[in-house]
Amino acid sequence: MICVELSFTADPARLAARPDHRQRLRAWHDQGMLLLAGPWDDDSGALLIFAAEAATVRRLMAEDPYFTTPGVRVVSLRAWRPLVGSDRPGTL
Predict the structure, then answer these.
(1) Residue 74: what pLDDT?
(2) Whole-number pLDDT of residue 86
(3) Is the pTM of this model over 0.90?
(4) CA-CA distances (angstroms) from residue 9 to 1, 36, 53, 69, 70?
């Protein structure tokens, strides 16, 4: 899994780009590539959890202008190995 953390500013360009971005999120979810996505409670950023390889996530992000829109900054893109709640067992 890949986790992408975003941070936001109040730039109006971000809000203008958001509807198209959310359509992409729904499509990625319908295709099984995106598990969860949503903003922090204070709208200072968001977290996206992908069930895809890092190269695939980078490609998806490159195709979505939202990730380079003023007011949006990619804080991190990290691989994640959940131990609980996954069909892949880990070690506790």
Answers:
(1) 97
(2) 60
(3) no
(4) 27, 22, 28, 11, 8
